[in-house]
Amino acid sequence: MAKQATSMKKTRARYSDAYREEALALADRVGAAAAARELGLQTSQLYQWRAKAQQKKNTSDREQSLADENARLKRQLAEMSEELAITKKAAVYFAKSLK
Questions:
Q1: Which residues form a coiled coil (predicted)?
Q2: CA 48 from chain center: how many Å?
Q3: Do residues 49 and 20 make contact, with C-beta atoms less than 8 angstroms apart?
Q4: How far apart are the C-alpha atoms of 78 and 85, rounded to whole Å?
Q5: Among 50, 51, 52, 71, which residue's CB has the most CB atoms within a 10 Å radius?
Q6: Is the pTM of this model over 0.85?
Q7: Residue 43 class from Cβ within 10 Å (0-12 exposed, 13-18 middle, 19+ buried)?
Q8: CA distance 42 to 91
Q9: What DSSP string runs through the chain?
C-alpha cells in the first residue's frame, strides 16, 4: 500500500519585531541556547535574527555617514558658488574700469 500524501502543511510562525528584539535581549543575557529553549525556538533562528539586526544596524550607520558627507559637500558647494559669484562681480567691475 502506498502512503497517501497529506495536504496539511505546517505554517511558519511569524514573529513581530518587538518579539524578536526581546528574544535577542534574552539571548544576550542568558545565552542563545537557553533563550531558544525557553522561547521554544531553534537556536539557529536566534542567530539569524541577530545577524539581520546587526546588518540593519550597519546599514543605518552607512546611511548616516553618507548623509553627513552629503551635508558637508552641500556646504562646500554653497561656499564655492558664493566665491564664484564674487569673482564674477569683481571681473565685471574691473572690466568696466578698463574701458
A1: 56-90
A2: 16
A3: yes
A4: 11
A5: 50
A6: no
A7: middle
A8: 73
A9: -PPPPP---PPPP---HHHHHHHHHHHHHH-HHHHHHHHT--HHHHHHHHHHHHHHHHHHHHHHHHHHHHHHHHHHHHHHHHHHHHHHHHHHHHHHHH-
The x, y and z cell numbers of residue 34, run together, are 537557553
What's the burial of 39, exposed, middle or buried (CB within 10 Å: 0-12/13-18/19+)? Answer: middle
